[in-house]
Design a protein that fits this description.
single chain, 2 domains, Rna Polymerase Sigma Factor, Chain: A, 10 helices
Length: about 180
């Protein structure tokens, strides 16, 4: 059996799986392409791909894991407070806006609000829980996940749904407070 006949029926499944893993259409397409290249290289050596669908999905997963391991040690922002600096009064409005947009592209509105309250304004977990009508353990859990997403590349399902007006308002208020 030739390579195309064995693989083509599973390409839609591979693409969907890769997009799910990466959380992004572009990254998913890149992952699917890399998976096909590696699978073809394997086929050239072995002249067969037993259980093609399982082989494709396992290869995609392994590539994804390898990529994350490779870049995990290169994460520059290890402290969330470095992402939202407390005392840098010289930060420009554009810089603040860029930080907010980057974070908004990775986490939900609720999580971004919690990060701002904790890391920028220094609110305690209890205060954030009271303000967001949540439990302290819920706040801790949400902050942990949100900080991890902001530092890493993965996005939450509701990421990027923060209205531009909200980002404008936040960046303006932050700039005014910290440049005064």
């Amino acid at each position: 059996m030739d390579f195309e006949a064995a693989i083509i029926p599973y390409i839609p499944d591979l693409s969907a799986y890769c997009r799910h893993l990466s959380g992004s259409d572009w990254d998913g397409d890149d992952l699917a392409q890399e998976t096909l290249v590696r699978t073809y290289a394997h086929w050239l050596k072995q002249r067969s791909v037993p259980n093609a669908k399982a082989f494709l999905l396992r290869t995609a997963r392994n590539i994804w894991i390898d990529e994350h391991r490779k870049y995990r040690s290169r994460v520059i922002v290890s402290d969330p407070s470095a992402f939202f600096p407390h005392s840098e009064r010289a930060a420009s409005c554009i810089g603040i806006r860029q930080l907010l947009e980057e974070a908004a592209g990775k986490v939900s509105l609720r999580c971004l609000e919690m990060i701002l309250l904790a890391d920028l304004y220094g609110y305690s977990m209890e205060e954030i829980a009271r303000l967001t009508r949540s439990s302290v353990s819920g706040v801790k859990s949400a902050l942990h996940r949100a900080r991890k997403m902001v530092r890493g590349g993965k996005k939450s399902r509701s990421a990027g749904k923060i209205p531009k007006q909200k980002l404008e308002e936040w960046s303006r208020r932050i700039f005014e407070e910290f440049s005064a």
